[in-house]
Amino acid sequence: MRKVNKVWLAAVLGGTLAVTSAAAAFAGETEASTESSTEATADFTGSGKVAYVCTGLGDMSFNDSGEVGMNVLRAAGYDVNTIETGEDASTYDQLIQNALEDGCDYMVVSSTYQDNVEAIADQYPDTKFILFDINSDSEVAADNMLYIYFKQNESSYLGGIVAAGLSKTGAIGAVGGVENPVIKDFITGYIDGAQAQNPDIKVSTAWVGDWSNSAKMKELCETQNSAKGVDVFFPIAGGAGTGAFEAANEVGDIWTLGVDSDQYKAFEKDNPDYANVIATSVTKEVGTMLVNVFKNIDDAKWGTLEAMGVKEGAVGVADNDYYEKVVPQDIRDAVKKAEAGIADGSITPKSYFDFASDDEYQALIDSVNP
Asked: How far is CA 364 from CA 77, 104, 229, 238, 357, in A?
């Protein structure tokens, strides 16, 4: 049975994340996130062994955002082991098993590994499992598990407003990594927000097939531009997303949206060509969320699912100096109005998880295809 604990959730999101220096390290000041651990600071202390499992660092997006949080945990006193599995799913069970056999008090994983850890969590009752970025309809599998669901449809709704507002052609794009419900939820909210800004907007969608093939991403974005007139790219594909920034630079007169973290800030120093085509980013505060979970770990309500969205400050769009410079005031005002509406409940962005079937999602995609 899915259980949601709103009191603990409020405590988690009410905390502050002491990652000023760590976030700077993430924003292009180090090649490997683990190397920045000495630069992170923490305003709390803790102890215990933590295993953070991800497909790989260096994506300047989702995984690296989580590692920024891990660096804060290291500064707080936790013994954190980051395990990079790669994308060969046939190895996941063994790598996770190895980490558990080595001993860990907490295992932190994304939905990529949900099936793997759900199958064995009850065999390790002394280990607490934190699963994040999972589907909203997930049922908690064991009492030693905590599920975190991001309302990515809310942040992508805001991104859709920006994309539709910036588009000169009336056609925008979205390219996902691996086809799954979370990415489809991103796209659903993106279309909804774009239509709120421009009811006649067209949205082209495509899939890379993995999280790392930037060349494929580049090809798909260039095709969206040449065949469909798309002039705003939205990559939702982890490390593969850099292909969209390459395409934008080559095509010219193109905007992109970053994803998961503030990718303008991530690339501003070391790759300004990428940074300068990123109008804003559709963010999930993965590192913030993980740090605040551990700040409140003694009060964590295991066996529950926590939903985090705009109202909780867990998702949104990056509001930085460049966004203020390149996105016109009327579009930014529309974003602010939508943020307030989502927070007070007067606006409810469409979600993939509200569709009765995948056919309904596909009907939406077909209805806006250029």
From this structure: 48, 44, 19, 24, 12
